[in-house]
Amino acid sequence: MVERIRVLIVDDHPIVRRGLVAFLQAQPDIEVLAEAADGEEAVRQVGRTRPDIVLMDLVMPKSDGIESTARIRELSPESRVIVLTSFADDEKIFAAVRAGASGYLMKDVEPQRLAEAIRTVHSGDALLDPAVTARLMGEFARQQSRASFLGALTARETEVLRLLGRGMSNKEIALELSVAEKTVKTHVSNVLQKLQLADRTQAALFAVRERLVDAG
């Protein structure tokens, strides 16, 4: 007897769920355990059924797919999440991967490719839409490039970057370093230029990611 891959389908559109159920139930090695119409229900269903695979929509009421993915991975680490969405913007892609998604596919995926994706992720591999992979690789390369620029910062600029990572304003940084606020503004501008970052929010996130911020 073939061991069937147990799947939970999460989507707020009933017609999408019906179509997925009909197709997946026709596969000899896939069993649809349950459905959920929103993120909160998805987390409850995972707690109850412990599926092998969760097919996760991103934009839903109550709790979106990204938040729900993170909660599911914490609740049931053995359950692997495949995002199935209409959205391919960078912010959602990166957030979903950071939340623990093992796959990211667009809803226009060919049915048989979806079935193969379920089998691939169930076997322990990750699977991303080719366009998604290209974006992730591009972002990874940009992050690596920015990290290599750290050496170009002066000691004072590095200190300013660290304080940005702590969420401090220019005025607070000026007080911390006993310098003029105008001087801090110049340092921030230099940091953004050298690290090729768009704004101080990106700089703060960069500082946290590069562990420049003191623990606690």
Report what the structure shows:
The protein has ten helices and six strands, in the order βαβαβαβαβαβααααα. The chain is α/β, with parallel strands linked by helices and 216 residues long. It folds into two domains: 5-139, 3-Layer(aba) Sandwich (Rossmann fold); 153-209, Winged helix-like DNA-binding domain superfamily/Winged helix DNA-binding domain (Arc Repressor Mutant, subunit A). Strands 2-1-3-4-5-6 form a six-stranded parallel β-sheet, with helices on both faces. α3 runs parallel beside α4 (90-99), α7 packs across α10 and α8 crosses α9. The mean pLDDT is 86.
Layout of SSEs?
Blueprint (H helix, E strand, L loop, with lengths): L4 E6 L3 H12 L4 E7 L2 H11 L3 E4 L8 H11 L4 E6 L4 H10 L3 E4 L4 H12 L4 E2 L1 H19 L6 H11 L4 H8 L3 H15 L4 H10 L7
Parallel strand pairs: 1-2, 1-3, 3-4, 4-5, 5-6
Put the structure in a nutshell.
With 216 residues, this protein is α/β, with parallel strands linked by helices.
The succession of helices and strands, N to C, reads EHEHEHEHEHEHHHHH
Tell me the number of strands.
6
- Here the CATH topology of the largest domain equals Rossmann fold
What structural class is derived from the secondary structure elements? Answer: alpha/beta
Could you state the CATH homologous superfamily of the largest domain?
Response regulator
The biggest beta sheet reads: 6 strands, parallel
Shape: elongated
In DSSP terms (H or I, runs of 4 or more residues), the helix count works out at: 10
> How far apart lie the N and C ends?
53 Å
Q: Helicity range of the residues?
A: 55-70%
Known CATH architecture of the largest domain: 3-Layer(aba) Sandwich
Strand content: 5-15%
Strand adjacency order, main sheet = 2-1-3-4-5-6
CATH class of the largest domain: Alpha Beta
Q: Show unreliable segments.
A: none
Mean pLDDT: 86
Total separate domains:
2
- Radius of gyration from the CA trace? 22 Å
